[in-house]
Amino acid sequence: MYDSLGAQTGLPRPPPNPQPNPFGNAFVGAGSGLIRGGLGAYGEKILGSSSEYVQSNISRYFSDPQYYFQVNDHYVRNKLKVVLFPFLHRGHWSRITEPVGGRLSYKPPIYDINAPDLYIPLMAFGTYVVLAGISLGLHGKFSPEALNWLFFKGLVGWFLQVSLLKMTLFSLGSGEAPLLDIVAYAGYTFTGMCIAVLGKITWSYSYYFLMPWTCLCIGVFLVKTMKRVLFVEVRSYDSSRHHYLLLFIALAQFPLFLWLCNISVNWLF
Amino acid sequence: MAKEFNVPPVVFPAGGNPGAAHQRRLPTPPFPPQRFANPSIPFMSFDIGSAAASTSFSAPQFAGNTIGIGSSFEDEPPLLEELGINTRQIWSKTVSIINPFRVNPDLHEDADLSGPFLFLLSFGLFQLLAGKLHFGIILGWVTMAALFLYVVFNMLAGRNGNLDLYRCVSLIGYCMLPMVILSAIALFLPQGGVGILVIAGVLVIWSTRVCTRLLVELASCGDEHRGLIAYACFLIYTLFSLLVIF
Known about the structure:
The complex is a heterodimer.
Chain A: H1 26-39, H2 42-47, H3 51-62, H4 73-84, E1 97-100, E2 103-106, H5 119-138, H6 144-171, H7 179-187, H8 189-202, H9 207-228, H10 239-261
Antiparallel strand pairs in A: 1-2
Helix pairs in contact in A: 5-6, 5-7, 5-8, 6-7, 6-10, 8-9, 9-10
Chain B: H1 18-24, H2 59-75, H3 79-83, H4 87-98, H5 114-129, H6 135-157, H7 165-174, H8 177-185, H9 194-218, H10 226-245
Helix pairs in contact in B: 5-7, 5-8, 6-7, 6-10, 8-9, 9-10
């Protein structure tokens, strides 16, 4: 279902044929450019001969990150509406597939509102860190080290969310969804957290209303996403277990929000 | 010089005759030869330019040595040029940043890090004047911000993106000028007041605007991602303004 290099082990394969969409297989261009630029003078030496092997290995685990950044303004605005007010979304929640090179792959985010992207989660995480810094400052507890600590706390929260989603997939016997998809879905919760922290900054009493509300919204969004998109992959359909796990995902959002939206310098509260 | 001085023999630990020992001495920088009326004071004076020296020295050797060392010293390029610091270019780039409405991307074609280094240093110095020791923090945050912007920009631009990390750091550093101005202004305003928040807002928007325009025009990203890039730059400069405000 996913356009990946498959489960071959070890042998270096040439990069796949470029897809007909206008961005092409830009992972070859942008990714190797990223890696080479980053390594500077040693890039050619280390990656020159083995770049195909490295790319095939990265593609096996990471499934072409460039796919997740094919966004534009229109997509970002509508996706934020879907994430923050999921009950207002009248359309369906499944992703659109297109046949590419004899294999079915999903359309990129520009063409499909339900496709995950990595731009919004990254920006939401950055906004969360900045807003947390502002909140700390307004309470007089700002220091750059505190902000570094909040950054790592947010990363840990993201990782916990990813592991929660991954564990529910594993417990149903299927873990085949690409890692970056799950990272993207987990990152969408930071948009809700940004709203909650923004409410805390502007008027402290609004926090007690906004936090449960956004928690609920993100819970609904995650449940609907996991139900439609990811459980398509699961072979066996066990109805009650399905529903318990979805309920668990929605309920687990509440402690996560409590932990991350309560901006303080301590580890727990 | 025709005068002959009574030079007592100098004994060196390595031995050797005093004549050879004198020859091994390097000449001191030229100073006007001083003549003492009292010949009992042992004083050796050199007249570097003159070919005729007192007979106890071997003058042509010294003259040759000094002329040889002098010409190689004069041939070296100036220090700033050797280090690659082009002060005129830094100044013209800085002046181009000051106008937020008209951006001249040609000046920023070749990136350099000496201008950003100066800006970050002055940012740190103004923070120091306010009592906060933030040099390491500023350096670390600029690195992380440059990496973040580099990843986001190249991923958004896809195949067309040709931003490299060096140019990214250079652009972020140059557009840090409004932040430096903010930290200078913040020294005179009460901390946590409304005034500093308003001024910080204006300067952050200035930084963001200049940085976005330079990025889009230099790295051929395309107009459809301008708002997305602008938000990333906005986040970065808000982060630095937090250092100043709080």
